[in-house]
Amino acid sequence: MADISAEAVRALRDRTNLPMMECKKALVEAQGDQDKAVAILKERVKGLQEKVADRVAGEGRVATLTAADGKSAVMVEMLCETAPVAKSEDFLKLTDQVTKQLLNGPGAASAEELLAQPCPDVPGQTLRELNEEVLNRIREKIVVGRILKVTGPVAGYTHHDGTLGVLIQASGDNATAQVLRDVAMHIAALNPTVCLPEQLDPAKVTAEKAKLTEEAAKSGKPANIIEKMVEGKMRMFYNNEGVLVAQPFAKDDTKTVAQALATAGLTATGFIRWRLGKP
After folding, report:
1. What is the pLDDT of residues 1-11, one digit of tens each?
2. What is the rounded CA–CA span in Å between residue 123 and residue 115?
3. Is 224 within the bounds of a domain?
4. Residue 11: which CATH number?
5. Higher pLDDT residue, 84 or 33?
6. Of 1, 147, 180, 224, which sees the most CB atoms within 10 A?
7. 196 — phi, psi (to 5°)?
8. Is 43 among the domain residues?
9. 213-224 confidence digits (pLDDT tens)
């Protein structure tokens, strides 16, 4: 058996950031060869992946990242087993690399496809290899859950606890307007059901408008006044039904969300709101 010095073990630990005992075992098996020891440690990840495969990954983070020009943004759900790991440096680094690559890379239709791509800030390493490194260190199941990339104008927002993420999409030329991020925060806080009135059940909208028109007609006012009365009450109806553009803007409730966006030449077209681990 090769004589493994403490210095050799420390050198391997510095190289891999794995526990000292794991490094020593690998060096013994590799008869002191550092490169072979690294290969052995990587191979052991496969067994570890099988060991943790059936565990529940119910903690983690929903991360968002928006391009500097506001023309694209991504949202990624990263899952792990425990809350402390979700806040750990290793897990946050992996999350950062996954979101950066999804935003700036060629895109991906699945987590597996994304993991095969390179780490943007770690030359020569794929996201899967980084994922395996982190797994080897923390010994918890790590899953890249949902991934999404959308075009802009768009802005993203992640709640401070990392369990909620939002992307808001709009039309218009002012893709970097601050109001987009403000609306994303509004969505996180107020949880609208749909973005636009036309996304509600048409039958329900028609029935409500007919009811309000009938009620307004009893006032005996002229048709043009009745129409305006119905329009005003329909705006209240849309707000009550959770239509984003009809809600009072959280940052300035003298305006609706639609009016706040309009001041920047923008019109909301859709949003995506993810709560960690929930559809």
Report:
1. 457 888 887 88
2. 15
3. no
4. 1.10.8.10
5. 84
6. 180
7. -125, 155
8. yes
9. 999 888 888 889
